[in-house]
Predict the structure of DUF112 domain-containing protein.
Amino acid sequence: VAYGVEKKTSRNSEDFGKGNIKGVIAPTSANNAALGGTWIPALVFGVPGDTITAIVLGAMLMYGLKPGPLIFIESPDLVNGVFSIAILANILLIPIGYLGIKAFAFVLKMKTSVVLTAVVLFSMIGSFAIRNSYFDIYVMLLFGFIGFMFERLSVPLAPMILGLILGPMVEDNLRVGLIKTGGSMDQFFTRPISLVLFILIVLVFLGGPALSLLKKAFSKSKKEE
């Protein structure tokens, strides 16, 4: 998105894709600016803002930490640590990036087979280190194969990751809600807040296709006229 906006607003848009440094600066700056904001919904609502926070939330759940409003009361040290590290990381980003730019460039020049081998190796070590179980390695390899097939078939991985992270939380809160309402689903559609959220969810899922259909119908009617 940032790249597209920069290209549209630039006076030399024809140079983009041909070495214009602004095409690198814009998305990188936008990415760094968005990192801090992704932690707000992740910690407050337990909804990851990106794949990085999704992985972190998964790790937190593994250690018994439940993201949500209560985390600021039950684990204030953790929250303070997260934001302190974020501030420190942004401060150290420039000197470390400047000093390590040659090393990063060397990694980019490495063969893909070498990089992928290292990634798989460290993934296996990390999977085994959690519970010292070989079964976790097999699970990691299975999901790695599934992810590879998803990439080959152009299936987005983000929804699957969000489902794995948010699935248990949704089930737990649904049970709590059903217990409070005596097993009735009416409260989910009649209460103001839940009704607004339900409408927003429907609009998110159906708004895009509906708008595209309306545009096609409108353009078709114009052509007929």
